Task: structure prediction
Amino acid sequence: GESVGLHLPTLSVQEGDNSIINCAYSNSASDYFIWYKQESGKGPQFIIDIRSNMDKRQGQRVTVLLNKTVKHLSLQIAATQPGDSAVYFCAENMLSGAAGNKLTFGGGTRVLVKP
Amino acid sequence: EAQVTQNPRYLITVTGKKLTVTCSQNMNHEYMSWYRQDPGLGLRQIYYSMNVEVTDKGDVPEGYKVSRKEKRNFPLILESPSPNQTSLYFCASTPSGRAREQYFGPGTRLTVT
Result:
């Protein structure tokens, strides 16, 4: 598959354990914070987003936490499975103006699930 | 099947030889965009289009052109490719107003020698 990042931080997780992926964002004015998953050889895939006026949102096996005080975003994956092995990107989006039409991505974290 | 398709998936070319990477989506999305992905730099937006005949620059537009003559297609044109445009390119689409949830194509690996 494609190599999407040669110098990514890597998180190794035992299958069945919970994973926590962290992201520091830069723009306090962003309205949405988003997590994408990129499997080898594929394009990024939307996982979950959270609006800036929330601090927690849950999806299926995933939870996103937002701490605006320290500009920190995290993605928690419950009961990590081999199919969760991928690169995870956080992204920011503003609703207004030209910035409302693009995503600004972070550098990504590689998650490796050990059987 | 709802999808974004890109062609070619892999391309090796030489400096200065014009090329086009095609992108097509079958979801009737108004918004389409192009990104490049480089190690250590993540994904950066090249150009985007909010609808037919409406395009605008992203963060790294230099050396690229786009057009949006039809809603489903958004080709990326490199008039005179250079080695620093060697990268992995992604096209994406989304309904208007939902730029945070984009649907990405499978990527095009471009090498310029």
Summary: The first strand of chain A starts at residue 10 and ends at 14.
